[in-house]
């Protein structure tokens, strides 16, 4: 099964091979009509709850905002909410394996629609591998939804990709770098889709797009768990974590550039974010615990 149509107006970067980078592909049979599934459940995580944002203040000269919260999540991300409706979203980003200090902590790169459908590249303390995770909910994370393929919802159509499996290789510091269904594409390949019928608010359109980094703390004080590449946004491409070619699809299935991104940074002394020139990309990340981040 394929999407009923593809959008127009999007110029894809051709800086990578269209082959998905998962090592299990080498020499493995992929019978038609089957999909690969992880054997172990050691990557299982509890239901996700997004904490409310309590206070907003402007952040220095970066046109960003600091959101102070009484919880253990730190964010460095941007939001697109300039028009009422979105019918798809797109981003190009590099994948890192930052240091994770505690088994109860994680670092992830997030891409989401209306806080209903999520995609993350996540690194946990367990194996220090970067893995692609997906999640969906239709009632604010209360009773519905799950990660990956752990419950009915997401329909995988590609037999070349293990959802939840490790991604290799990852970035190196200083290196080169209308069906009503919501389709997931990775490296120009259709992986699968969430049927519009399983949603309420996302049944026809999205009203918010979020992308960026998130880190969960296991303690009151900060640890050396890194976000992104473990380096601050000011270091730029090839050193800091990057997301670019941000945009959305309108009701005519045309790709549109965002007019302005709304940054969110919870603790700029630990993890920060800088929007790039033109407002279609950004850098983010940080090293965690230090004299300024405690």
Give the gist of this structure.
It comes from Erythroxylum novogranatense. This protein is 0% helix and 31% strand. It is built from no helices and 17 strands.
Plain-language structure description:
This is Neprosin PEP catalytic domain-containing protein. This protein is mainly β and 294 residues long. The chain contains no helices and 17 strands. The protein has strands at 55-59, 64-68, 73-80, 89-93, 106-113, 117-124, 130-136, 146-147, 155-156, 182-186, 189-194, 209-216, 241-249, 255-256, 262-265, 272-275, 282-285. The strands form 3 sheets. The chain has a 9-stranded mixed sheet with strand order 1-2-15-3-12-5-6-7-8, with no helix packed on it. Strands 4, 13, 14, 16 and 17 form a 5-stranded antiparallel sheet that branches. β13 and β14 form a beta hairpin. The protein starts with 54 loop residues before the first strand and ends in a 9-residue tail after the last strand.
